[in-house]
Amino acid sequence: LSEIDFIVLSIDEEAQVAIADRISAMNRQMSDWYFTKRRNGEYMIDKGTKLEARVVAANHNAMIVEVRGKEYRLEARDISYHRITDVSEEYPVGSTLPVVVTEINRERVRGGTYQLSAKVSAKLAAQDMRKKVFEMYQIRSLVSAMVTGIDTNGVYCRIEDGSGVMDILCNFSDGWWGTPVIGEMVLVRIEKKEIRDGEYRIYGTIVHSLHGKR
Fold first, then answer.
1. Digit-coded pLDDT (tens) for 168-193
2. How far apart, in Å, are the Cα atoms of 184 and each of 160, 169, 171, 210?
3. What does DSSP say about strands 7-12 and 17-21: parallel, antiparallel, or unpaired?
4. Separation CA 214–CA 207 (nearest Å)
5. Percentages helix, strand, coil for the chain, rounded to the nearest 5?
6. Which of 93, 71, 163, 51 has its CA nearest to residue 202?
7. What's the number of CA atoms in the CB half-sphere (13 Å) around residue 102?
8. What average pLDDT does the chain have?
9. Straight-line distance from the first to the last Cα atom of the chain, in angstroms, rounded to the nearest whole number
10. Which of 84, 134, 136, 165 is spaced 20 to 30 Å from 5 by Cα?
């Protein structure tokens, strides 16, 4: 479940029914937050502002978040630096997460209404720990990881410790038998590291299962 804001228009006490307007409540919030300036002349919300977003809908690949009366659609690639197998599982409806405003254009129009065009990113609001993880693990070292995805490219395994979170794309060793399942803990040998197009990438080989799920 997710909290929502609304304005009560009328109440029928006998029937114990209230009629409310969510759209008006959202428009009021947008007016108060996106179109109001501080004493120094700066807008309350502008490019680079970090805010808390509330998840109001989510599916396998994306989610809808509300930020101060405006809803945004975030694809998996805009949410996290690590691979997300199921957005709705990691970010259920009602949960919150930090976001940063990356684009914003606002316009007042006749009739006292407002036009707002903006974008937010949860990914850019978080600290990117991939470089730290990349530098910590050396070639041929062994690390325990959790299987988060399987496709034609291989098996995606997630390292998660005090250094941060990072995905490793893995193949199977010659002695491996069977197919890993999502959530299974496996032992991975680091085979290759590279920096390509500004992205830190680690490749490995699954050595064996650790017979458990996280």
1. 998 765 555 567 888 889 999 999 99
2. 14, 15, 15, 8
3. antiparallel
4. 18
5. 15, 50, 35
6. 163
7. 12
8. 84
9. 25
10. 84
